[in-house]
Design goal:
Elements: E1 3-14, E2 17-28, E3 32-36, H1 43-50, E4 58-63, E5 66-67, H2 72-76, E6 79-82, H3 94-104, H4 109-122, H5 138-150, E7 156-160, H6 168-183, E8 187-192, H7 195-201, E9 204-209, E10 212-218, H8 219-226, E11 230-235, E12 249-253, E13 256-260, H9 264-278, E14 282-287, H10 292-300
Parallel strand pairs: 3-8, 3-9, 6-7, 7-8
Antiparallel strand pairs: 1-2, 1-4, 4-5, 9-10, 11-13, 11-14, 12-13
The structure holds adenosine-5'-diphosphate (ADP).
Adenosine-5'-diphosphate binds near residues 37, 40, 41 and 42.
Length: about 300
Amino acid sequence: MNRTLEVNNLIKRYGSKSALEDVSFSVKEGSCFGLLGPNGAGKSTTMKIINGIIEADSGNVDVFGKDIRKSADDIRKLVGYVPQEITLYDKISAFNNLVFFGEMYGVKGKKLKERISEVLEQVGLSERAYDPIHTYSGGMKRRINIAAALLHNPKLVILDEPTVGIDPQSRNHIFEIIRLLRSEGVTIIYSTHYMEEVEALCDDITIIDNGRVIVQGDLNELLLQYATKAIYLELENQLEAPVIPGIKNVSEYKKGWLLETDHVLNSMETISHTFHETGITVKALEMMRPSLESVFLTLTGTTLRD
Ligand code: ADP
């Protein structure tokens, strides 16, 4: 499979502060790649380097087989970058904002008008096209920001934390846009600190923390390899941790206990049997879905939200 992006050994410092310490990953053509990490992990810095907005101190980035430092102009024609900050003119309409961005990307005249109506349709805001941006919600502005990055039909779309601080409806729209782009063969790079978004959208992921890669690979394989297999148990009036054969570890979780086991179904049967016999009421007995949260916990010993 072809690689749309290769990032090798990126190092970046801001003064004495180290933001990236040897970050490498690659992105397959046509895939949705998730760059996941807590705030301050180095996601935006990585995205800005890939887009040629800032330069790495060392390391290199190839986009569509070309070095970003040598072929920035060629690469820019193929890439749509959606920055974290909203970059729209508040006083003018979405349509006029899109004219401005389209011309900046070299799309003009009739072709630009056609593309504007297509991208407005894609982001679900055709009806608001002529309203000034200051009348839009935060989520709607974000969708127009995405529309602006799509005008020149990029083959790679890079979104830096596109759902931070927006309403659920806009979030769903953004997910739909990403799925649509993927179905058209566009490669997506999606950065976020929301694990559930990566789980919902991405094929391959790289988790970074403190400027270092913690783990990377196929999402499902990572879940299989690192996610804890566990059961959630909630009992009536249970103050002490339950002791159950075959359970490797017990920890407090929500209103009950998280029981780690290699044999989830057998353990559930044992638990149900044990408490039935002792007459203790089981309020909840649930299989925990393997999640990226537990992958992160297994690998770092902390939660992503810490
Ligand atoms: P993320 O996008 O994952 O939240 P960033 O790439 O924005 O992380 O930041 C990585 C680290 O670099 C953080 O410690 C942040 O404070 C620092 N940093 C980012 N931009 C600058 C800057 N312009 N000047 C100084 N430090 C910065």
